[in-house]
Write a structure and sequence with these properties.
Elements: E1 5-7, E2 17-24, H1 28-36, E3 44-51, H2 54-64, E4 68-72, H3 80-88, H4 91-94, E5 97-102, H5 107-116, E6 119-124, H6 128-146, H7 148-151, E7 159-164, H8 168-184, H9 190-212, H10 217-225, H11 230-237, H12 241-244, E8 248-254, E9 258-264, H13 272-276, H14 290-297, E10 300-303, E11 309-315, E12 332-336, E13 341-343, E14 351-357, E15 360-364, E16 367-372, E17 378-379, H15 381-386, E18 393-396, E19 400-406, H16 407-416, H17 419-439
Parallel strand pairs: 1-7, 2-3, 2-4, 4-5, 5-6
Antiparallel strand pairs: 7-8, 8-9, 9-11, 10-11, 12-19, 13-18, 14-17, 14-19, 15-16, 15-18
Helix pairs in contact: 2-3, 6-8, 8-9, 9-14
Length: 440
């Protein structure tokens, strides 16, 4: 076990990230209310488009490739099946997350909808506070993905622990960092990264609020009814040396097939069985739903007898579960072992590579300059598109699988799937943005 990593602040310079999402709803008053509660998140801008019919939604999904779509399941729509088919026909579209709005939700609804949609969350139509929280979490996540190399302790230390102070924003950022790392390295897909983010965030916040700060369910109800800011209330409680000295420990172990995340607070514990066995309707109460949300969104959740330690297990994708974009299904699969060179600096760039699994080191002149993983999708795209020699050497850090795409195949793919060019263009723009940020 490594020494606990102290993280008192996750501050740092981030690039401005823009998120694009749509609202599919025939109730214009509900759409207007959603616009009114859109959260403001530092370093994040966003644009929203409203839709009431199928055809413009289809074009929007195919050619705008939004980050997520809010779907009102209570609107008198008859074409939700068509929307599901569009999203499921290609992994890149399948990565578009769905937030479902329902009239009255139960945990059973969540489980059923999760089998039909790439589900991020189920929110009651009247629960605008819940929707605002969900949107805030989703909007915030990409900053952590872009800042992966700087903020992640997991890459070099697959087993260790992190100490978190009684700070709700820090807890949310740690949860985002965890889900971002597993997403970026191809261990989980996009839908699961959001679910893990929500689950771990709820567990960490519960550990701070109810464990370390001893805020009971009734206490929090009174705070919310009095419109008291809970984060500010916790800051006041931290002035008590006994409470302020307490921390939450996130202990982690990242294996090939799964990862385990143990959240431990310094409180007196609670009757966790009461909440894990609650009736379904408790899942969507204004608060007190964190444990059920975490249980419904994770592969396994258990507590110690005292109730101050929660163990969350996240199962990873297996190699045969990785979905290949439909336009790339016929391309050659290239397998590399640890230490093998994918391509070398100055060699001819005859192929573009799509990353299925594995991690890679990028070096120039013998100096390490970068790291690639499945979240980067492509490698060697610049020299490939410009018909130039390779500008760097790429070495596989573990067993990896790539799709090898020739110039002729690339042209064929773009002709049949023109929206793929947009994916590649966005990827190049993101990498240029990161380079500009790094070089000042």
């Amino acid at each position: 076990m490594t020494e606990p990593l102290e993280l008192s602040s996750m501050d740092g310079a981030h690039p401005i990230v823009h998120r694009n999402f749509g609202i599919y709803c025939t109730d214009s008053s509900l759409s207007a209310r959603i616009h009114d509660i859109l959260p403001s998140v530092d370093q994040i801008s966003h644009s929203v488009q409203d839709f009431q019919t199928l055809e413009p939604v289809r074009d929007y999904l195919l050619y705008d490739l939004p980050d997520f779509l809010v779907v009102d399941l209570e609107s008198p729509q008859t074409d939700l099946g068509a929307i599901r088919r569009i999203l499921n026909e290609d992994p890149w579209l399948g990565g578009i997350g769905i937030i479902c709005l329902v009239a009255r939700a139960k945990s059973a609804d969540f489980l059923q909808l999760a089998t039909e949609w790439n589900l991020l969350a189920v929110v009651e139509r009247e629960d605008l506070d819940g929707l605002q929280k969900v949107l805030g979490t989703i909007l915030r996540t990409p900053v952590l993905i872009l800042d992966y190399q700087k903020t992640n302790p997991f890459h070099e230390s697959p087993k260790g622990s992190i100490k978190i102070k009684n700070d709700l924003s820090e807890a949310e950022e740690i949860a985002g960092m965890v889900s971002s790392y597993l997403l970026r390295t191809g261990r989980i897909e996009k839908k699961k990264s959001y679910n893990l983010n929500m689950s771990l965030s709820e567990l960490l916040i519960n550990a701070i609020e109810h464990g370390n700060c001893m805020i009971s369910f009734s206490d929090k109800t009174k705070l919310l009814e009095a419109d008291v800011n809970v984060a500010e209330h916790i800051a006041k409680l931290n002035k008590d040396p006994e409470i302020g000295s307490r921390t939450v420990t996130l202990e982690y172990s990242i294996q090939k097939d799964s990862s385990t995340w143990i959240v431990r607070d310094m409180g007196e514990g609670f009757d966790h069985k009461k909440y894990l066995n609650s009736e379904n309707q408790d899942l969507f109460l204004p608060h007190g739903r964190g444990i059920l949300m975490a249980a419904n969104s994770s592969d396994s959740l258990s507590y110690n007898g005292k109730g101050n330690e929660a163990t969350l297990v996240c199962n990873h994708q297996k190699e045969d579960e990785y979905r290949v974009p439909v336009g790339l299904l016929t391309e050659e699969v290239a397998i590399f072992q640890k230490g093998e060179v994918v391509f070398s600096e100055n060699e001819e760039s005859s192929h573009l590579y799509y990353i299925l699994t594995g991690e890679f080191e990028v070096s120039v002149g013998g100096t390490r300059v970068g790291h690639l993983a499945p979240a980067d999708m492509f490698m060697g795209e610049m020299s490939f598109l410009l018909n130039k020699r390779r500008t760097a050497t790429v070495v596989s850090l573990n067993r990896s699988r790539l799709l090898k795409i020739s110039h002729r195949s690339f042209i064929r793919i773009i002709k049949t799937h023109p929206n793929y060019m947009l994916v590649l263009a966005r990827l190049l723009a993101q990498r240029l943005s990161r380079t500009n940020l790094a070089t000042g």
